[in-house]
Each structure stands twice: as C-alpha cells, then as structure tokens.
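Record 1 of the preview.
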Amino acid sequence: MEQITLTGIIVQIINFLVLVGILTYLLYKPVKRILNERRKKIESTLKEIEIEREKLEKERKEAERNLQEIYKKAEEIIKKAELDAEAERTKIIREARRESQQIIENARKEGEELKKRFILELKDEIVSLAITIASNILGESVKPKLQERMLNEFVNLVKSEHSK
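->
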C-alpha cells in the first residue's frame, strides 16, 4: 500500500482547492445566475398571478354589486307593477260601481216614467169609463163643464184613496 505522506496530503488539498475554484468559476456562477433568473421569473409570475387574482376579485365584487342592483330593480319593477295593478283594479271596480249605479238610476227613472204613463193612461181610461157610465146613467151626453168637474172630483177621489 502506499503511504500517506504530508507532501501527498498537501498536494491533494491544493488539487482539491484548484478543482473547487475551477468548478466555482465554471459551474457555480452560471448555475447561480440560472437559479436567480428562475427565482425572478417565479416571483414575476407570482406577482402577475396576484394582480390577476385581485383583478378577478374586483370583477367578482362588481358582478355581485351589479347582480344586487338588478335584483333591487326587479323588485322595484314588481312592486310598481303590483301597485299599478291594484290601482287599475280599484279604478275598474270604481267604474263598474259607477256604471251599475247609473244603470240602477236609469232603470228607476224609466220605472217612474212607466208608472206615471201607466197612471195617466189609467186615469184617462177611468175618466172615459166614468163618463160613459155617467152618460148611460143620465141618458144624455154630459156637457164639457160638467164633464171636467166630474173628472176633477173623480181624480181627487182616486188620489185620496191612493194616498191611504
């Protein structure tokens, strides 16, 4: 076996240090530079992701706000439509009541007119019958003044009987 000598150890140490220096110069600095570039690229990508996340968060909040506004407007439209429908319903009911009152009033007036006409026709018929009966009883034609007086007496009699 070989003997380990002090000179051999020193030469080995020098060789090792030279090798470390060459490797450092040739490998360490380029690897360090590549790692630094990679780190910077990762940091840049992370910043971009963070900016994009913040942007998306703002857009989400804006979309939520818009959605809330849409719901609020829809609710207002529904309430307004309900109020308009209620007002229209009330108007239609009021108009229908007014028309029904008018129809009732017209029917009442028509009934009154028919009643008056019927009474007048009935009076004329009664007077005519009364004159005919009176003429037959008296055997002569009744003079106009007498006819008028008899008519007035009969009408008064009918009124007094009708009032009771």
